[in-house]
Amino acid sequence: MPRPNLLNLFSWTDFEERVLEVFRAALVLLGQEPDLPRSEDPLNRRLLVCLRRANLSLRQQRRGLPSPVLYECVMQPVADDVQLNQFLWTRPDFTWGVHDDLAERWEWASLFYHIECKRLGVPSSATWILNRKYTENGIRRFEDPAHGYGHGFPSGVMVGYMQTMTPDEILVEVNVHATNAGFPALTCSADWTPRGVTDLDTHRFTRRISPTQFQLHHLWMDLQHHNFATSGVPTMPQRKRRPRPKKKPQTPTG
Prior knowledge:
The chain is an alpha/beta fold. It has helices at 9-32, 40-59, 130-136, 167-180, and strands at residues 69-71, 94-99, 110-120, 155-162, 197-199, 203-206, 213-222. The chain contains four helices and seven strands; from the N terminus they run ααβββαβαβββ.
């Protein structure tokens, strides 16, 4: 017997709007930084700092969220799911959780919002096609039961870091891979925002996890004006090894 959907959609919509507002503000802060790493993981860590800054600023205006954003946190199971441990090994780039005081039952009082980030532009190597990875390692993870991003909730967010190519060229290539994978094409009915955030139209599709009808928001940040560092990941200095003392030769006894 299917469980009743007790999610408070009013609370979820308000929660989602606040998450999106913080991410838009944080991405603008990210774009204002003088130097940025090129790779995804260090970019995400820099975005994490911007998210904390943006949320505090919004909280001081009585907006934002009272809970902290979590970086690469393992998936949290839905309380009454029969497969509690199914997704506990997967890690969305960001998770934002909040407690819904208006929930009718405890099972739906904990809300979790998942955000996945991907680079966009020319391939970084012959085998790592960024605009294809946006679907394969991004959109697909909100649909695939093996990852289950957004499981139990009606929407989520993809962040795109536009590093090279024009936005229109990126959108065309992303849509080739998205439609080949069985997803609807992404559309952008607004003008692109130079050096800023562009909200693509809401992406709706049917998926293999609950709820089956899902909405994915896409926030694309224009970072093409940056001269990216090759890594951005601090490296630990090599430790000098002390020479081992030579063993004294053993003298025969007796």
